[in-house]
Structure formats: C-alpha cells, structure tokens
Amino acid sequence: MTKVRRRVQPGEQALACDLDLAARIEARSARIGVIGQGYVGLPLALVFREAGFPVIGLDVDARKVEALQRGESYIQHIGPERVAAAVASGRYEATVDFDRLAACDAIVICVPTPLGPHREPDNSYIHATARQVAKRLRRGQLVILESTTYPGTTEEEVLPILGESGLTTPGDFLLAFSPEREDPGRQNFNTRTIPKLVGGVNPASTDFAAMLYAAALERVIPVSSARVAESAKLLENVFRAVNIALVNELKMIFEHMAIDVWEVIRAAETKPFGFMAFYPGPGLGGHCIPLDPFYLSWKAAEHGEWARFIELAGEINSRMPRYVVERVAHALNQDGKALNGSRVLVLGLAYKANIDDDRESPSYEILELLQESGARVDYCDPYFPAARKGRKHDLGIRSVACKPEVFAGYDALVVATAHDAFKDAALYRDVGLVVDTRNMIAPLHGSGPRRLVKA
Ligand SMILES: NC(=O)c1ccc[n+]([C@@H]2O[C@H](COP(=O)([O-])OP(=O)(O)OC[C@H]3O[C@@H](n4cnc5c(N)ncnc54)[C@H](O)[C@@H]3O)[C@@H](O)[C@H]2O)c1
Description:
Elements: H1 18-26, E1 32-35, H2 41-50, E2 55-58, H3 62-69, H4 80-89, E3 92-95, E4 106-109, H5 124-136, E5 142-145, H6 153-163, E6 174-177, E7 196-200, H7 203-214, E8 220-222, H8 226-256, H9 261-268, H10 292-302, H11 308-334, E9 343-347, H12 362-372, E10 376-380, H13 404-407, E11 412-415, E12 433-436, E13 451-454
Parallel strand pairs: 1-2, 1-4, 2-3, 4-5, 5-6, 7-8, 9-10, 9-11, 11-12, 12-13
Antiparallel strand pairs: 6-7
Helix pairs in contact: 5-6, 8-10, 8-11, 10-11, 11-12
This protein binds nicotinamide-adenine-dinucleotide.
C-alpha cells in the first residue's frame, strides 16, 4: 500500500489534532463513518473494515440497514459473506442514527447525485448530508465527499455548510473530494485496487485524506485541489459518453452502407496504439455515464460556456432506444407483421451484463416505446424476477422463464443486455426473429434464430 507522509506547508496553521489523527490512521484505530451504504458506500466501508478500521455505515434507508445488520448483502455482486464477516468482526455496524457521526474521526459521503426532471443536477442529497455532518462536526474530523458532482461543489457548497458549525479548515477540520470509480461487475479491478484520486480544499486536507485511503487502498494519487479531483471524475465519464455516442452514430451510418460496425471495431482494435474500442448499444445505463456529464454542462453554462460535445453525445445516446424500436418495427414488417399486436420479448433489464443494477437502464424505455406502439411486451432477466418501480417507470411486469419453449412464443426477441444466461444457442432454436443490440447472438455456435438483425 502507498504510504503518504504528512507535508506541513510553510506558514500553515497546525491542526490541534494533527498528530492524533495521523497516529489513529497509522494504527487503524481511526473510526470511519461512511454515509450512504449503496453501490459505492457499502464496498468502501467493507474495504476500510477489511484493512482493520472500525467502520460505521450510515444510511437513511432502514430496510438496507436492517439487512446489513443481519449480515446480509442486498447487492448481488457484493458477496453476503463479506458483509457477514464484517458484522461478525464487531468492526462494522450499519445504522440510521446520525448522532454516531460525532464519534467518527473520518466521514466519507457516498450519497446519490441524480438529475432533476430537466436534466439539472440534484445536489440536495449532498446538502442534506452536509447539514447532518455540520450539526455534529467537531475538531479534528476529516470529511471526504465521494459523490460525483460538478467542479466547485466541495469548496462552494459543502464547505460553507460545514462552516455553519463555527469551525474552520484546516485549523479545526479537514475537507477533501475523492471521486468514486466503482465499476460493478468488473473482474480485474475492485474498490481496493482501483487507483484513488484525492484533492483537498487545502493541502492539509489533501494529505490527511490521502493518508486515510493509503491505509486501505493500493494506490492513492493526490491532486492539487478538490476541483481537480471533481473535474477528473467528470472527464472520465464524459470521455465514455462521447465515445459511446460516436460508435452509436457510426453504427447507424454503417447500417445504411450495409457494413457491420462490430466487425469494423474488431478490425480497428488490431491497431496496437492510438485506438480504444467502445461498443454501440441500446442506449446508456447506470448511475454514472447517462447522468454525470450533465453536471458539467450545467456548471459550464454558469460560466457562459457551452459543453457541446456533452450535449451532442447526450442527444445521440438518448435516441438509441427509439432507434432500436424502429429496427424492431422494420424487421417485423419484413416478416409481414405489424409491431402493433406482435409479441415482443426484451432480454435483459440490467444496464450491463451479469449485474443486478437496472438504474437508468435503456431496457425500460424500449419496453415502454414498444408498448406505446401496441406491442404485447414481456422481459426476461434472471437478475430481476420483477420489474422495479423506478422514478420514471412502473411497468408492473415479471420476468418470463429463460427457456427455449418460452422464447419460441414471441414474434421478436430484443437483446438489450448480454447476460451469460442468454448465451446458450439452444435458447433460440425455435425463435423467428432476434434484434440484437449487443452483438451477442452472432458469435454463438449452434442453431440460432431464423433471422438475426443487428441494431
Ligand atoms: N454505482 C456506481 O457504480 C458509481 C460509480 C462511481 C460513482 N458513483 C457515484 O457515487 C454516488 C453514490 O452512488 P451509488 O451508486 O452508491 O448510489 P446508491 O443509490 O446505490 O446509494 C446511495 C445510498 O445513499 C443513501 N442515502 C440517500 N440519501 C441519504 C442521506 N441523506 N443520508 C444517508 N444516506 C442516504 C441511499 O439510501 C442509498 O443506500 C453518486 O454520486 C454516484 O454518481 C457511483
């Protein structure tokens, strides 16, 4: 693990608790409160606990807290054995009691940052949490924001709220931003091994935050400010959103030229430098890529700037579900069938393969658009026995079984998620039409559907 030593800046006001906090981090006795026990906060809390720290996981959702206290994981890719071991160790505890923050040496905020109805940032969770922290803030505490947000949030919004306590930084408390880079389902990296950026609102805050993470994670990279750390996270996600939009647009262009975009990407990928493959799909999903870039474009407008790449990428990517439904309608038409009245099965509710996360999944929009066109729709997803009620959708349907005889009963199948459970060629042996947005069917060997359309 990286060892980060405290650099005292010339003329810097010494923290009364400076040595105490450093010693507690070094000894792994610093108590860490992680606010928000979701996809980001729960694995982070577990990693700190596994590194030897006592950890309190705080959340407003009493049902999640109760499950965690029973030693159960409610997130499929976070094994229940990790939560059970954490609870049994006596060094992890989940609670809804925010008064417990007073006993924490470090407080890490991992609450949601969604978009409002007009794609505007909604920082209300961050503000509410900062107020909870401010009420209990005491000298010597280190506060770190991990929620993805626009540059300036830590310094311009969180700092003034914490300042309502009457305490100041760096004299009394420390404040930093460290972006979360969690990628659920990824096999080659995890919370502990993903390099961690850290930027404080002053050098002392950067140093202490870096010291804390270095005690539990493999690699910590301090940057010069919280703003740089906030911006780096957005650059990463804008980069993905723009490149996915690029291949989505190329897919539609190549389709008119009867060129298979997947083969083109495979060919381009053979260049050993200067190219990175991105893949088209049915639209963006997940908690990050569809949302985070708009945090930056919103903030850019405040400075009189247009984030044109972000807006264009958003326009192309958000059009993809509609494109997929148009392709289904066209393909059925070629079979002499109308979308209206046809039975259509969507494979996959999760936004990506082999995970139980359906947030912002384009499958919901595809299902709704199909329904609006009069299709009789169902879905199949082993990770979601029932479609969840979301902020925008309430389909009220349950998954059908993943069986050849079930699949055979539909006029068209739409592959929206390439779960491994769908990769058995035998499932498609009696299927008439598959519209595949993931290039999942073509590489399967064995008897496939009678007609395959890539979309
Ligand atoms: N999920 C990812 O893969 C991922 C990756 C990188 C960054 N992020 C960012 O991390 C942040 C958290 O995302 P997530 O995926 O963990 O969200 P999540 O919805 O899974 O978890 C957030 C948790 O916070 C709780 N919560 C809400 N309001 C609260 C409050 N006021 N006090 C305490 N707890 C509260 C919720 O009950 C929930 O359990 C977001 O800013 C997101 O953009 C997420």
